[in-house]
Amino acid sequence: DADVTQTPRNRITKTGKRIMLECSQTKGHDRMYWYRQDPGLGLRLIYYSFDVKDINKGEISDGYSVSRQAQAKFSLSLESAIPNQTALYFCATSDTSVSSYNEQFFGPGTRLTVL
Amino acid sequence: GQQLNQSPQSMFIQEGEDVSMNCTSSSIFNTWLWYKQDPGEGPVLLIALYKAGELTSNGRLTAQFGITRKDSFLNISASIPSDVGIYFCAAPAGGSNYKLTFGKGTLLTVNP
Q1: Which residues, 6+ apart, have CB-to-CB distance to B78 below 8 Å?
Q2: How far, in Å, CA of B19 to CA of B5, rounded?
């Protein structure tokens, strides 16, 4: 869905580097999420945000931080990247103002490789 | 935490065949969602189910919300090569209305 964009789409970096992944949405949704996907492990929630002032840890937040700069922007940072953070990263949004508030809409993903 | 058990893990079928997959849990849910992920892309919402027993279609796809509220099923009729991908079920996590827990996915391969 082109309404949720992620940059970069691919990134290769070295151990110890700081990395930021960006997510922007034009859906006007209030909630945003960051997920990590690894083969065989499915999608796991890293952080989620209900609005600009509200940030919450997901199930695997260690080694990550986030910033909700505006309702439409939610960035994920790896302060000091390590090889086991090599994965696909997805941003998602949802709209709590509608009855279908459980439905989340995903961006195209960022493939991150840490050498 | 709540776990969704999705099966089968993978399927290899011939074009034109019908496909069935399911998702089960020991927990009760009020919503079931089905997503498809194409290679190199993000998951796309296919079908949302909100009522026990509900049967909803989206083209050749049909999903059902199990009557016990602990399971859901997805069927694809007359499969075509572009049906290839990973299919995920999802449901609200831990009583929260805003977080989802996902199954580990069913990888579908369609042989032309």
Answers
A1: B16, B17, B18, B60
A2: 18
Minimal Cβ distance to B44: which of A1, A43, A50? A1
Q: How far apart are the C-alpha atoms of B43 and B85, rounded to whole Å?
A: 10
A8 close contact with B: CB closer than 8 A:
no
Contacts B1 to A, Cβ<8 Å: 59
Q: What is the pLDDT of residues A19-32, one digit of tens each?
A: 999 999 999 999 99
* Residue range B70-109, pLDDT digits in tens: 999 999 999 999 999 999 999 997 656 578 999 999 999 9
Check if A22 contacts B (Cβ < 8 Å).
no
Q: Is A4 helix (H, G, I), strand (E, B) or coil?
A: strand
Q: Between β-strands A31-38 and A87-94, what pairing exists: parallel, antiparallel or unpaired? A: antiparallel
| A75 and A66 Cβ atoms separated by less than 8 Å | yes
Alpha-carbon gap, residue B44 to B38, rounded angstroms: 8
CB atoms within 10 A of CB A39: 9
b/e per residue B38-53 (b: at least 16 CB within 10 A): eeeebbebbbbbeebe
User: Hey, is the C-beta of A4 within 8 angstroms of any chain B C-beta?
Assistant: yes
